[in-house]
Design goal:
Elements lengths: L17 E4 L8 E8 L4 E4 L4 E6 L9 E6 L2 E2 L3 E4 L6 E2 L1 E6 L2 E6 L10
Antiparallel strand pairs: 1-2, 1-7, 2-3, 3-6, 4-5, 7-8, 9-10
Bound molecules: zinc ion.
Zinc ion binds next to loops.
């Protein structure tokens, strides 16, 4: 059984965010975050980091062949795309009452809606 990390990092990237890849061969690509694997510090981004899988013919895939799907990548390889200034930015967090609000460090606009 996986032990809970003692110093679990709070990620500032969430499912549904748009991110831009800033490292590696996919650098510059943007996509929506499909999953955040917090314990592994990895994320899966829509249409980014495709891997090819060769599959045998089956009921689901009668012709067999190559299936492409997104592979996870390390969370540090992406930056959030600010919905306001639409640039890949660093995200800050500030308290608003009891809530943590994410904001863009570039244009200072709140990232989370409502
Ligand atoms: Zn911004």
């Amino acid at each position: 059984m996986a032990k809970a990390a003692k110093h679990a990092k709070k990620f500032r990237i969430k499912q549904g965010d748009t991110v831009e890849v800033v490292q590696g061969k996919e650098s510059g690509k943007r996509g929506k975050v499909l999953h955040v694997l917090a314990s592994e510090e990895r994320i899966v981004v829509e249409r980014v980091n495709f891997i090819k899988r060769h599959v045998r013919p089956s009921k689901k895939v009668p012709q067999g062949g190559v299936i492409e799907r997104e592979a996870s990548m390390h969370i540090s390889n992406v930056k959030l795309v600010c919905p306001s200034c639409s640039q890949a930015v660093r995200v800050g967090v500030r308290m608003q009452g009891d809530d943590k609000i994410r904001y863009c460090k570039k244009c200072n606009v709140q990232v989370d809606k409502g």
